[in-house]
Amino acid sequence: MNNENKTDMSKMKIYSQEEMLDLTLGHKGTPERDDYEAKVDDYLVGLAIRRAREAQNLTQEELGQRIGVQRARICSIERGANLRLSTIRRIFTALGMEVKLDIATMQPIPIC
């Protein structure tokens, strides 16, 4: 590596994840950022559902039968698509798990 490359690399700025999100999507509260963060939240809920289902050795079809939906709907839910609080509650109830809604200014609220 020559001296010119060393100088260029030493001037590189390293950005935090929050800074990168600000630069690419806008600051918190902008429509693009809010949409992105909502999709991430939905994905994480779907992932939690999938992990809980797999921990009980259930197939998507078996979980769907427990809550009265087709396997394709469980697949969609696990991808974080079209999640509703009522559906989330039904799923975790069917899995025998407790779910709490945690709002920053309130105590956790059991929903099932």
Write the layout of secondary structure elements.
Blueprint: H1 3-10, H2 17-25, H3 31-55, H4 60-67, H5 71-78, H6 85-94, E1 100-101, E2 109-110
Helix pairs in contact: 4-5
Compose a concise summary of this entry.
With 112 residues, this protein is mainly alpha-helical.
Labels describing this entry:
single chain, 112 residues, mainly alpha, 434 Repressor (Amino-terminal Domain), two-stranded antiparallel sheet, 6 helices, 2 strands
What can you tell me about this protein's structure?
This protein has 112 residues and is mainly α. The chain has a single domain, classed as 434 Repressor (Amino-terminal Domain), CATH 1.10.260.40. The chain is built from six helices and two strands; from the N terminus they run H-H-H-H-H-H-E-E. Strands 1-2 form a two-stranded antiparallel ribbon. Strand 1 (100-101) and strand 2 (109-110) form a beta hairpin. Helix 4 (60-67) packs across helix 5. The longest helix has 25 residues, at 31-55. It is elongated. The N and C termini lie far apart (61 Å). The mean pLDDT is 86.
The fraction of residues assigned to DSSP E strands is under 5%
Mass-distribution shape:
elongated
CATH-defined architecture: Orthogonal Bundle
* CATH C-level class: Mainly Alpha
Structural class: mainly alpha
What fold name stands as the CATH topology?
434 Repressor (Amino-terminal Domain)
Termini separation: 61 Å
Please write the string of helix (H) and strand (E) elements: HHHHHHEE
Radius of gyration: 21 Å
Enumerate how many helices there are, as a single number: 6
The CATH superfamily label reads lambda repressor-like DNA-binding domains
The assembly state of the depicted protein chains is single chain
Average of the residue pLDDT scores = 86
Number of domains: 1
Q: Specify the biggest β-sheet.
A: 2 strands, antiparallel
How are the strands of the biggest sheet laid out side by side?
1-2
Q: What proportion of the residues is helical, as a percent range?
A: 55-70%
Total strands: 2
Q: Any low-confidence stretches, pLDDT <50, length ≥5?
A: none
